[in-house]
Amino acid sequence: MLKTLIVDDQAAVRTALEVLFDLHGLPTLVAGSPQEALDLVAAEDVGVVVQDMNFTEATTSGHEGLQLLRDIKRLDPDLPVLAMTAWTSLEMAVQLIKEGASDYQAKPWDDTKLVNTVKNLMRLRELSLENTRLRAGGARARAELARKHDLRGVIYASPTMHEVVSLVVKVAPADVPVLITGPHGAGKEQVAEMVQANSRRKTAPFVKVNCGGLPDQLLEAELFGAEPGAYTGAMKLRVGRFEEAHGGTLFLDEIGNLSPAGQAKLLRVLQLGEFQRLGSNVTRKVDVRVISATNVDLPKAIQEGTFREDLYFRLAVIEVKLPALKDRPEDVPVLAEHFLQHFQPEGEVLYLGASARQALLAHDWPGNVRELQNRIQRAVLVRKGATLEAADLGLSEAGQPEKSASEPASVPAALSEEEAQERATVERALAEAQGVVSRAAAQLGLSRQALYRRMERLGLSVERRLKG
Known about the structure:
The protein is of the alpha/beta class and 468 residues long. The chain has four domains: 3-128, Rossmann fold, CATH 3.40.50.2300; 159-321, P-loop containing nucleotide triphosphate hydrolases (Rossmann fold), CATH 3.40.50.300; 325-393, Helicase, Ruva Protein, domain 3 (Orthogonal Bundle); 417-457. Helices cover 46% and strands 13% of the residues. It is built from 18 helices and 14 strands. It has helices at 11-23, 34-43, 63-75, 90-99, 111-148, 159-171, 188-197, 216-224, 241-244, 260-272, 298-303, 309-315, 331-343, 354-362, 368-382, 417-432, 437-444, 448-457, and strands at residues 3-7, 28-31, 46-52, 81-85, 103-106, 178-181, 206-210, 249-253, 274-276, 283-285, 289-294, 318-321, 351-352, 387-388. The chain has a five-stranded parallel beta sheet with strand order 2-1-3-4-5, with helices on both faces. A five-stranded parallel beta sheet has the order 7-8-11-6-12. Strand 1, helix 1 and strand 2 (28-31) form a beta-alpha-beta unit. The longest helix is centred in the first third of the chain and has 38 residues, at 111-148. The chain is elongated, with a radius of gyration of 32 Å.
Protein backbone atom coordinates (compact mmCIF):
# COMPACT_ATOMS: atom_id res chain seq x y z
CA MET A 1 0.00 0.00 0.00
CA LEU A 2 1.25 3.47 -0.85
CA LYS A 3 2.11 5.71 2.09
CA THR A 4 2.25 9.44 2.75
CA LEU A 5 5.73 10.62 3.71
CA ILE A 6 5.73 13.49 6.24
CA VAL A 7 8.98 15.48 6.28
CA ASP A 8 9.35 18.08 9.04
CA ASP A 9 12.09 18.89 11.54
CA GLN A 10 9.56 19.52 14.35
CA ALA A 11 8.38 16.37 16.14
CA ALA A 12 5.09 17.98 17.20
CA VAL A 13 4.18 18.77 13.59
CA ARG A 14 5.07 15.25 12.47
CA THR A 15 2.87 13.75 15.20
CA ALA A 16 -0.07 16.04 14.43
CA LEU A 17 0.04 15.15 10.74
CA GLU A 18 0.42 11.43 11.50
CA VAL A 19 -2.72 11.47 13.66
CA LEU A 20 -4.69 13.49 11.10
CA PHE A 21 -3.81 11.19 8.21
CA ASP A 22 -4.33 8.03 10.28
CA LEU A 23 -7.86 9.18 11.16
CA HIS A 24 -8.62 9.40 7.43
CA GLY A 25 -7.15 6.02 6.52
CA LEU A 26 -3.86 7.31 5.08
CA PRO A 27 -0.81 5.24 6.17
CA THR A 28 2.26 7.37 6.89
CA LEU A 29 6.02 7.44 7.10
CA VAL A 30 7.92 10.23 8.89
CA ALA A 31 11.30 11.87 8.39
CA GLY A 32 12.94 14.66 10.40
CA SER A 33 15.56 15.66 7.81
CA PRO A 34 15.99 15.85 4.03
CA GLN A 35 18.46 12.94 3.95
CA GLU A 36 16.15 10.71 5.97
CA ALA A 37 13.32 11.62 3.58
CA LEU A 38 15.41 10.72 0.51
CA ASP A 39 16.35 7.36 2.07
CA LEU A 40 12.66 6.57 2.60
CA VAL A 41 11.69 7.62 -0.94
CA ALA A 42 14.35 5.26 -2.27
CA ALA A 43 13.37 2.33 -0.04
CA GLU A 44 9.60 2.56 0.59
CA ASP A 45 6.35 2.68 -1.42
CA VAL A 46 5.76 6.40 -1.11
CA GLY A 47 2.63 7.78 -2.77
CA VAL A 48 2.76 11.43 -1.70
CA VAL A 49 5.36 13.59 0.07
CA VAL A 50 4.17 16.32 2.48
CA GLN A 51 7.30 18.34 3.22
CA ASP A 52 8.34 21.38 5.19
CA MET A 53 10.41 24.06 3.45
CA ASN A 54 12.89 24.87 6.25
CA PHE A 55 14.88 22.41 8.35
CA THR A 56 17.47 24.59 10.10
CA GLU A 57 16.54 26.71 13.13
CA ALA A 58 15.89 30.39 12.32
CA THR A 59 15.88 29.68 8.59
CA THR A 60 12.91 30.99 6.59
CA SER A 61 14.15 31.27 3.00
CA GLY A 62 12.71 27.92 1.86
CA HIS A 63 15.87 27.04 -0.07
CA GLU A 64 16.38 23.84 1.93
CA GLY A 65 12.90 22.65 0.99
CA LEU A 66 13.43 23.63 -2.64
CA GLN A 67 16.61 21.55 -2.74
CA LEU A 68 14.79 18.59 -1.18
CA LEU A 69 12.07 18.90 -3.84
CA ARG A 70 14.70 18.80 -6.58
CA ASP A 71 16.40 15.76 -5.01
CA ILE A 72 13.07 13.91 -4.72
CA LYS A 73 12.27 14.65 -8.35
CA ARG A 74 15.64 13.28 -9.39
CA LEU A 75 14.84 10.04 -7.58
CA ASP A 76 11.23 9.82 -8.77
CA PRO A 77 10.06 12.49 -11.26
CA ASP A 78 6.40 11.46 -10.99
CA LEU A 79 6.14 11.43 -7.19
CA PRO A 80 3.62 14.10 -6.01
CA VAL A 81 5.09 16.59 -3.51
CA LEU A 82 2.99 18.93 -1.37
CA ALA A 83 5.03 21.77 0.18
CA MET A 84 4.07 23.35 3.54
CA THR A 85 5.57 26.24 5.45
CA ALA A 86 4.63 29.05 7.83
CA TRP A 87 6.75 31.45 5.77
CA THR A 88 4.82 31.90 2.55
CA SER A 89 5.68 34.10 -0.41
CA LEU A 90 4.30 34.34 -3.92
CA GLU A 91 7.78 34.09 -5.44
CA MET A 92 8.52 30.84 -3.61
CA ALA A 93 5.12 29.37 -4.54
CA VAL A 94 5.77 30.09 -8.23
CA GLN A 95 9.26 28.59 -7.99
CA LEU A 96 7.93 25.44 -6.33
CA ILE A 97 5.39 24.84 -9.09
CA LYS A 98 8.08 25.42 -11.72
CA GLU A 99 10.28 22.85 -9.99
CA GLY A 100 7.52 20.25 -10.04
CA ALA A 101 5.63 20.59 -6.74
CA SER A 102 2.04 19.36 -6.99
CA ASP A 103 0.63 21.85 -4.49
CA TYR A 104 1.58 24.43 -1.85
CA GLN A 105 -0.17 25.03 1.49
CA ALA A 106 0.52 27.34 4.41
CA LYS A 107 0.85 26.53 8.09
CA PRO A 108 -1.23 26.34 10.13
CA TRP A 109 -3.14 24.11 7.73
CA ASP A 110 -6.82 23.49 7.16
CA ASP A 111 -7.41 19.82 8.08
CA THR A 112 -10.16 19.17 5.52
CA LYS A 113 -8.36 20.89 2.68
CA LEU A 114 -5.08 19.16 3.45
CA VAL A 115 -6.61 15.66 3.69
CA ASN A 116 -8.59 16.13 0.46
CA THR A 117 -5.50 17.35 -1.35
CA VAL A 118 -3.41 14.39 -0.17
CA LYS A 119 -6.15 11.92 -1.14
CA ASN A 120 -6.42 13.44 -4.61
CA LEU A 121 -2.67 13.33 -5.09
CA MET A 122 -2.61 9.73 -3.88
CA ARG A 123 -5.23 8.75 -6.46
CA LEU A 124 -3.23 10.44 -9.19
CA ARG A 125 -0.12 8.58 -8.04
CA GLU A 126 -1.96 5.25 -8.15
CA LEU A 127 -3.21 5.97 -11.67
CA SER A 128 0.28 7.00 -12.77
CA LEU A 129 1.82 3.81 -11.41
CA GLU A 130 -0.89 1.71 -13.04
CA ASN A 131 -0.28 3.38 -16.40
CA THR A 132 3.45 2.82 -15.98
CA ARG A 133 2.85 -0.85 -15.22
CA LEU A 134 0.59 -1.16 -18.27
CA ARG A 135 3.16 0.52 -20.51
CA ALA A 136 5.92 -1.67 -19.15
CA GLY A 137 3.75 -4.74 -19.58
CA GLY A 138 2.94 -3.70 -23.14
CA ALA A 139 6.62 -3.17 -23.93
CA ARG A 140 7.47 -6.60 -22.50
CA ALA A 141 4.65 -8.20 -24.48
CA ARG A 142 5.82 -6.53 -27.71
CA ALA A 143 9.40 -7.60 -27.08
CA GLU A 144 8.30 -11.17 -26.37
CA LEU A 145 6.22 -11.25 -29.55
CA ALA A 146 9.15 -9.92 -31.60
CA ARG A 147 11.48 -12.51 -30.03
CA LYS A 148 9.24 -15.43 -30.93
CA HIS A 149 7.99 -14.29 -34.34
CA ASP A 150 9.09 -12.48 -37.47
CA LEU A 151 7.16 -9.20 -37.36
CA ARG A 152 8.65 -7.97 -40.65
CA GLY A 153 9.79 -4.73 -39.06
CA VAL A 154 6.30 -3.60 -38.02
CA ILE A 155 6.67 -0.61 -35.66
CA TYR A 156 3.94 0.09 -33.10
CA ALA A 157 3.28 1.03 -29.48
CA SER A 158 -0.53 0.99 -29.24
CA PRO A 159 -2.55 -1.77 -27.55
CA THR A 160 -4.86 -1.76 -30.59
CA MET A 161 -2.04 -2.64 -32.96
CA HIS A 162 -0.64 -5.17 -30.50
CA GLU A 163 -3.96 -7.05 -30.69
CA VAL A 164 -3.72 -7.06 -34.50
CA VAL A 165 -0.14 -8.33 -34.53
CA SER A 166 -0.94 -10.96 -31.90
CA LEU A 167 -3.84 -12.22 -34.01
CA VAL A 168 -1.69 -12.33 -37.15
CA VAL A 169 1.10 -14.45 -35.66
CA LYS A 170 -1.49 -16.72 -34.01
CA VAL A 171 -3.36 -17.53 -37.24
CA ALA A 172 -0.34 -17.48 -39.57
CA PRO A 173 0.54 -21.19 -39.09
CA ALA A 174 -3.03 -22.26 -39.90
CA ASP A 175 -3.12 -22.93 -43.65
CA VAL A 176 -6.36 -20.99 -44.30
CA PRO A 177 -7.23 -17.88 -46.35
CA VAL A 178 -6.76 -14.53 -44.59
CA LEU A 179 -8.56 -11.30 -45.51
CA ILE A 180 -6.89 -8.06 -44.39
CA THR A 181 -9.21 -5.04 -44.34
CA GLY A 182 -8.41 -1.42 -43.61
CA PRO A 183 -7.97 1.99 -45.23
CA HIS A 184 -5.41 2.88 -47.89
CA GLY A 185 -1.90 3.30 -46.55
CA ALA A 186 -2.52 1.53 -43.22
CA GLY A 187 0.03 -1.22 -43.89
CA LYS A 188 -2.02 -4.14 -45.24
CA GLU A 189 0.80 -5.45 -47.43
CA GLN A 190 3.19 -5.50 -44.48
CA VAL A 191 0.63 -7.51 -42.48
CA ALA A 192 0.35 -9.96 -45.40
CA GLU A 193 4.12 -10.36 -45.34
CA MET A 194 3.91 -11.08 -41.62
CA VAL A 195 1.36 -13.84 -42.23
CA GLN A 196 3.63 -15.40 -44.84
CA ALA A 197 6.79 -15.06 -42.73
CA ASN A 198 5.21 -16.92 -39.80
CA SER A 199 3.43 -19.60 -41.84
CA ARG A 200 4.44 -23.14 -42.77
CA ARG A 201 4.98 -21.80 -46.30
CA LYS A 202 7.53 -19.17 -45.31
CA THR A 203 10.28 -20.66 -47.48
CA ALA A 204 7.95 -21.15 -50.47
CA PRO A 205 7.08 -18.53 -53.12
CA PHE A 206 5.26 -15.37 -52.00
CA VAL A 207 3.63 -13.79 -55.05
CA LYS A 208 1.87 -10.40 -55.02
CA VAL A 209 -0.81 -9.15 -57.40
CA ASN A 210 -2.52 -5.74 -57.40
CA CYS A 211 -6.07 -6.54 -58.52
CA GLY A 212 -6.90 -2.85 -58.87
CA GLY A 213 -4.06 -1.99 -61.22
CA LEU A 214 -4.98 -4.07 -64.30
CA PRO A 215 -7.90 -4.20 -66.76
CA ASP A 216 -10.26 -7.16 -66.25
CA GLN A 217 -8.98 -9.31 -69.12
CA LEU A 218 -5.35 -8.72 -68.28
CA LEU A 219 -6.03 -9.42 -64.62
CA GLU A 220 -7.45 -12.86 -65.44
CA ALA A 221 -4.40 -13.57 -67.55
CA GLU A 222 -2.22 -12.31 -64.71
CA LEU A 223 -3.88 -14.61 -62.18
CA PHE A 224 -4.56 -17.72 -64.22
CA GLY A 225 -2.25 -17.46 -67.23
CA ALA A 226 -3.11 -17.41 -70.93
CA GLU A 227 -2.49 -19.52 -74.00
CA PRO A 228 -1.04 -17.90 -77.13
CA GLY A 229 -3.79 -16.04 -79.00
CA ALA A 230 -6.15 -16.00 -76.01
CA TYR A 231 -6.52 -12.23 -76.39
CA THR A 232 -5.19 -9.47 -78.59
CA GLY A 233 -1.45 -9.20 -78.16
CA ALA A 234 -1.03 -12.62 -76.49
CA MET A 235 1.78 -13.95 -78.67
CA LYS A 236 3.17 -16.58 -76.31
CA LEU A 237 2.23 -18.70 -73.34
CA ARG A 238 1.77 -16.71 -70.15
CA VAL A 239 2.13 -18.48 -66.81
CA GLY A 240 -0.28 -17.08 -64.23
CA ARG A 241 0.49 -16.01 -60.69
CA PHE A 242 -1.35 -19.00 -59.20
CA GLU A 243 1.09 -21.31 -60.98
CA GLU A 244 4.02 -19.18 -59.84
CA ALA A 245 2.80 -19.37 -56.24
CA HIS A 246 2.26 -23.18 -56.28
CA GLY A 247 3.22 -24.53 -52.87
CA GLY A 248 3.40 -21.04 -51.43
CA THR A 249 1.27 -17.94 -50.86
CA LEU A 250 -0.53 -15.57 -53.22
CA PHE A 251 -1.29 -12.04 -51.97
CA LEU A 252 -4.21 -10.42 -53.79
CA ASP A 253 -4.23 -6.71 -53.01
CA GLU A 254 -7.34 -4.60 -53.73
CA ILE A 255 -9.46 -7.75 -54.03
CA GLY A 256 -12.58 -5.58 -53.91
CA ASN A 257 -11.87 -4.42 -57.48
CA LEU A 258 -11.86 -7.92 -58.97
CA SER A 259 -14.31 -8.31 -61.89
CA PRO A 260 -17.33 -10.67 -61.69
CA ALA A 261 -15.60 -13.10 -64.06
CA GLY A 262 -12.42 -12.94 -62.01
CA GLN A 263 -14.40 -13.48 -58.82
CA ALA A 264 -16.00 -16.63 -60.27
CA LYS A 265 -12.65 -18.07 -61.31
CA LEU A 266 -11.07 -17.21 -57.98
CA LEU A 267 -13.92 -18.89 -56.13
CA ARG A 268 -13.31 -22.07 -58.15
CA VAL A 269 -9.63 -22.08 -57.20
CA LEU A 270 -10.48 -21.65 -53.53
CA GLN A 271 -13.15 -24.34 -53.60
CA LEU A 272 -11.46 -26.99 -55.75
CA GLY A 273 -7.83 -25.92 -56.00
CA GLU A 274 -8.07 -25.86 -59.80
CA PHE A 275 -8.29 -23.31 -62.64
CA GLN A 276 -8.01 -22.91 -66.40
CA ARG A 277 -5.77 -20.58 -68.34
CA LEU A 278 -7.42 -18.08 -70.66
CA GLY A 279 -7.95 -19.77 -74.03
CA SER A 280 -7.60 -23.29 -72.60
CA ASN A 281 -10.03 -26.00 -71.51
CA VAL A 282 -7.35 -27.87 -69.58
CA THR A 283 -7.98 -27.90 -65.83
CA ARG A 284 -4.87 -27.44 -63.70
CA LYS A 285 -4.39 -28.20 -60.02
CA VAL A 286 -2.63 -25.81 -57.68
CA ASP A 287 -1.77 -25.67 -53.97
CA VAL A 288 -1.79 -22.03 -52.89
CA ARG A 289 -2.68 -20.17 -49.70
CA VAL A 290 -4.52 -16.96 -50.55
CA ILE A 291 -4.09 -13.78 -48.52
CA SER A 292 -6.22 -10.90 -49.76
CA ALA A 293 -6.57 -7.26 -48.82
CA THR A 294 -9.01 -4.46 -49.52
CA ASN A 295 -10.15 -1.06 -48.35
CA VAL A 296 -13.60 -1.73 -49.83
CA ASP A 297 -16.52 -2.42 -47.50
CA LEU A 298 -17.15 -5.93 -48.82
CA PRO A 299 -20.42 -6.57 -46.90
CA LYS A 300 -21.76 -3.36 -48.47
CA ALA A 301 -20.46 -4.44 -51.90
CA ILE A 302 -22.28 -7.75 -51.45
CA GLN A 303 -25.52 -5.90 -50.75
CA GLU A 304 -24.97 -3.77 -53.87
CA GLY A 305 -24.34 -6.88 -55.96
CA THR A 306 -20.75 -6.03 -56.92
CA PHE A 307 -19.06 -8.73 -54.84
CA ARG A 308 -19.95 -12.39 -54.40
CA GLU A 309 -21.01 -13.39 -50.89
CA ASP A 310 -19.71 -16.96 -51.32
CA LEU A 311 -16.31 -15.62 -52.34
CA TYR A 312 -16.24 -13.29 -49.33
CA PHE A 313 -16.77 -16.18 -46.93
CA ARG A 314 -14.06 -18.19 -48.69
CA LEU A 315 -11.56 -15.32 -48.44
CA ALA A 316 -12.45 -14.25 -44.89
CA VAL A 317 -11.93 -17.51 -43.01
CA ILE A 318 -9.76 -15.24 -40.86
CA GLU A 319 -10.32 -11.48 -41.13
CA VAL A 320 -7.69 -9.10 -39.82
CA LYS A 321 -9.04 -5.58 -39.42
CA LEU A 322 -6.23 -3.04 -39.60
CA PRO A 323 -7.14 0.23 -37.81
CA ALA A 324 -6.57 3.65 -39.28
CA LEU A 325 -3.61 5.56 -37.87
CA LYS A 326 -5.94 8.16 -36.32
CA ASP A 327 -7.41 5.36 -34.18
CA ARG A 328 -3.99 4.43 -32.75
CA PRO A 329 -2.34 7.78 -31.97
CA GLU A 330 0.26 6.12 -29.71
CA ASP A 331 1.89 4.80 -32.89
CA VAL A 332 2.40 8.21 -34.51
CA PRO A 333 5.49 9.31 -32.50
CA VAL A 334 7.28 5.94 -32.73
CA LEU A 335 6.60 5.65 -36.45
CA ALA A 336 7.74 9.23 -37.02
CA GLU A 337 11.02 8.59 -35.21
CA HIS A 338 11.50 5.35 -37.17
CA PHE A 339 11.01 7.07 -40.53
CA LEU A 340 13.24 9.95 -39.45
CA GLN A 341 16.06 7.53 -38.68
CA HIS A 342 15.49 5.84 -42.04
CA PHE A 343 15.54 9.01 -44.15
CA GLN A 344 18.16 11.14 -42.38
CA PRO A 345 21.37 11.55 -44.39
CA GLU A 346 24.41 9.57 -43.34
CA GLY A 347 26.54 11.39 -40.81
CA GLU A 348 23.74 13.72 -39.69
CA VAL A 349 21.46 13.59 -36.64
CA LEU A 350 18.02 15.10 -37.13
CA TYR A 351 15.38 15.88 -34.52
CA LEU A 352 11.64 16.51 -34.42
CA GLY A 353 11.03 19.98 -33.03
CA ALA A 354 8.20 20.91 -30.67
CA SER A 355 5.98 22.30 -33.44
CA ALA A 356 6.53 19.16 -35.54
CA ARG A 357 5.56 16.89 -32.65
CA GLN A 358 2.47 18.97 -31.97
CA ALA A 359 1.47 18.86 -35.64
CA LEU A 360 2.01 15.10 -35.83
CA LEU A 361 -0.30 14.51 -32.89
CA ALA A 362 -2.93 17.00 -34.10
CA HIS A 363 -3.15 15.73 -37.70
CA ASP A 364 -5.86 13.14 -38.43
CA TRP A 365 -3.78 11.18 -41.01
CA PRO A 366 -6.26 10.48 -43.82
CA GLY A 367 -3.41 8.78 -45.69
CA ASN A 368 -2.44 6.70 -42.66
CA VAL A 369 1.10 5.28 -42.26
CA ARG A 370 1.99 5.93 -45.89
CA GLU A 371 1.17 9.62 -45.50
CA LEU A 372 3.25 9.83 -42.31
CA GLN A 373 6.20 8.25 -44.10
CA ASN A 374 5.84 10.67 -47.02
CA ARG A 375 5.64 13.72 -44.75
CA ILE A 376 8.74 12.73 -42.79
CA GLN A 377 10.64 12.16 -46.04
CA ARG A 378 9.48 15.55 -47.28
CA ALA A 379 10.57 17.23 -44.05
CA VAL A 380 14.06 15.72 -44.30
CA LEU A 381 14.42 17.06 -47.84
CA VAL A 382 13.14 20.63 -47.27
CA ARG A 383 14.40 21.27 -43.71
CA LYS A 384 16.52 24.32 -42.95
CA GLY A 385 18.47 22.77 -40.10
CA ALA A 386 18.83 19.71 -37.89
CA THR A 387 15.48 20.32 -36.20
CA LEU A 388 12.36 19.53 -38.21
CA GLU A 389 9.38 21.80 -37.62
CA ALA A 390 5.69 21.64 -38.55
CA ALA A 391 6.19 23.66 -41.75
CA ASP A 392 8.76 21.10 -42.95
CA LEU A 393 6.04 18.45 -42.69
CA GLY A 394 3.69 20.57 -44.78
CA LEU A 395 1.46 21.01 -41.73
CA SER A 396 0.48 23.79 -39.39
CA GLU A 397 0.95 23.29 -35.64
CA ALA A 398 -2.80 22.56 -35.51
CA GLY A 399 -2.20 19.63 -37.85
CA GLN A 400 -3.83 21.19 -40.94
CA PRO A 401 -2.15 20.59 -44.32
CA GLU A 402 -0.51 23.64 -45.86
CA LYS A 403 -1.44 24.24 -49.50
CA SER A 404 1.38 23.96 -52.00
CA ALA A 405 1.21 25.77 -55.31
CA SER A 406 3.12 22.93 -56.98
CA GLU A 407 0.60 20.28 -55.89
CA PRO A 408 -2.86 20.02 -57.48
CA ALA A 409 -5.37 20.27 -54.64
CA SER A 410 -7.39 17.40 -56.13
CA VAL A 411 -4.62 14.80 -55.81
CA PRO A 412 -4.92 12.76 -52.59
CA ALA A 413 -1.83 13.23 -50.39
CA ALA A 414 -1.54 9.50 -49.72
CA LEU A 415 -1.10 8.24 -53.34
CA SER A 416 1.88 5.97 -53.81
CA GLU A 417 4.07 6.31 -56.91
CA GLU A 418 2.28 3.36 -58.51
CA GLU A 419 -1.14 4.86 -57.75
CA ALA A 420 -0.03 8.25 -59.11
CA GLN A 421 0.99 6.57 -62.39
CA GLU A 422 -2.34 4.74 -62.48
CA ARG A 423 -4.17 8.05 -61.93
CA ALA A 424 -2.26 9.65 -64.80
CA THR A 425 -3.22 6.76 -67.10
CA VAL A 426 -6.90 7.10 -66.21
CA GLU A 427 -6.79 10.90 -66.61
CA ARG A 428 -5.22 10.52 -70.06
CA ALA A 429 -7.89 8.02 -71.15
CA LEU A 430 -10.67 10.31 -69.89
CA ALA A 431 -9.17 13.28 -71.71
CA GLU A 432 -8.90 11.33 -74.99
CA ALA A 433 -12.52 10.17 -74.53
CA GLN A 434 -13.60 13.79 -73.90
CA GLY A 435 -14.96 12.78 -70.51
CA VAL A 436 -17.13 9.92 -71.81
CA VAL A 437 -16.61 7.29 -69.10
CA SER A 438 -17.87 4.32 -71.14
CA ARG A 439 -15.44 5.18 -73.98
CA ALA A 440 -12.53 5.63 -71.56
CA ALA A 441 -13.43 2.33 -69.85
CA ALA A 442 -13.37 0.51 -73.21
CA GLN A 443 -10.00 2.01 -74.02
CA LEU A 444 -8.63 0.80 -70.66
CA GLY A 445 -10.24 -2.64 -70.99
CA LEU A 446 -12.51 -2.01 -67.99
CA SER A 447 -16.22 -2.14 -67.38
CA ARG A 448 -17.81 1.25 -66.76
CA GLN A 449 -18.54 0.27 -63.14
CA ALA A 450 -14.92 -0.83 -62.62
CA LEU A 451 -13.66 2.49 -64.00
CA TYR A 452 -15.99 4.44 -61.70
CA ARG A 453 -14.66 2.46 -58.70
CA ARG A 454 -11.10 3.14 -59.78
CA MET A 455 -11.79 6.86 -60.23
CA GLU A 456 -13.27 7.06 -56.74
CA ARG A 457 -10.25 5.29 -55.27
CA LEU A 458 -7.84 7.64 -57.06
CA GLY A 459 -9.79 10.80 -56.14
CA LEU A 460 -10.93 11.55 -59.70
CA SER A 461 -14.14 13.10 -60.92
CA VAL A 462 -15.00 13.92 -64.50
CA GLU A 463 -16.86 16.64 -66.36
CA ARG A 464 -17.74 15.62 -69.88
CA ARG A 465 -16.30 17.95 -72.50
CA LEU A 466 -19.00 19.00 -74.97
CA LYS A 467 -18.12 20.08 -78.49
CA GLY A 468 -19.23 23.63 -79.17
